[in-house]
Design the sequence.
């Protein structure tokens, strides 16, 4: 049974390393930001996830269970897609015009480039004044 677990841990480490290598290669070699963005967020996330799962299995086998790897994995899987989305939206807002994007099928434009009206900010009143709860 120990050999099966060792093979599983080794396979996870190799798979994690391959995903990390592919993600790093894509980050360096792809031509522009929008294509480069896909490589590290998908491949590298799976690479680090594979290494962390292997580390969790090794900790279970050694009898030293730790929650650090699980928390790092959850943090990585939650933050990488959100960061990728923010970078992509910033690139779209900076480099594209509403004419470059396809129609949405609704009266509104794309959320990133919705320039139909200025945002309305609420009026600031001091505490205790009419219109603001104390």
Sequence:
């Amino acid at each position: 049974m120990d050999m099966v677990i060792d093979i599983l841990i080794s396979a996870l480490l190799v798979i994690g390393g391959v995903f990390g290598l592919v993600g790093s290669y894509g980050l360096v070699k792809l031509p522009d930001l929008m294509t480069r963005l896909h490589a590290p967020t998908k491949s590298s996330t799976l690479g680090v996830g594979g290494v962390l799962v292997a580390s969790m299995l090794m900790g279970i086998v050694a009898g030293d269970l730790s929650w650090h790897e699980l928390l790092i994995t959850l943090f990585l899987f939650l933050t990488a897609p959100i960061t990728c989305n923010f970078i992509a939206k910033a690139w779209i807002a900076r480099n594209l015009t509403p004419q470059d994007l396809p129609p949405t099928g609704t009266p509104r434009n794309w959320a990133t480039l919705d320039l139909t009206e200025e945002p309305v900010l609420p009026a600031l009143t001091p505490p205790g004044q009419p219109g603001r709860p104390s």
